[in-house]
Amino acid sequence: MEHTVIISRWPAKASHISFYDVMIRGRPYARHFTKFEEIKAKMATNQQAEAVTMLQDTTLIEDNFAQVGTVDR
After folding, report:
1. In whole angstroms, what is the distance from residue 47 CA to residue 61 CA?
2. CB 54 within 8 A of CB 14
C-alpha cells in the first residue's frame, strides 16, 4: 500500500479555542497552554478585542501539535 503525505495549514485561529478545550484542557501538559485560559477569561469579561489579539498572536497550537492526514492509494 502506498501512502501520500499532505501538508496543510491549521484551521482558523478561532478553532484553536475548541481544540484547546477538547484536546488539551485538563491534561497533564495543559500547564504549558495557560494562554488559552487567559484568552477565554478575556472573552468571558467582555474584552473580546483583546482576546482576539491574544489569540492571533499565539502560535502554541501550531508549534506543539502536528496536523497529520494520509491518503491511501
Report:
1. 22
2. no
User: Is 26 in a helix, a strand, or coil?
Assistant: coil
Q: Where are the domains of the chain?
A: 3-72
Q: Helix, strand, coil proportions of the chain in percent (round to 5)?
A: 60, 10, 35
pLDDT tens per residue, range 3-23: 676 667 778 888 999 999 999
| Whether the Cβ atoms of residue 40 and residue 17 lie closer than 8 Å to each other | yes
Whether the CB-CB separation of 54 and 42 falls below 8 Å is answered with yes
- Asked if 22 and 30 touch (Cβ cutoff 8 Å), the reply is no
Residue in the structure block whose three cell numbers are 508549534 = 63
Model pLDDT, residue 70 = 59
Kindly indicate the confidence band of residue 69, based on its pLDDT and cuts at 50, 70 and 90. low
Rounded to the nearest angstrom, the gap between the alpha carbon of residue 13 and the centroid of all alpha carbons in its chain is: 7
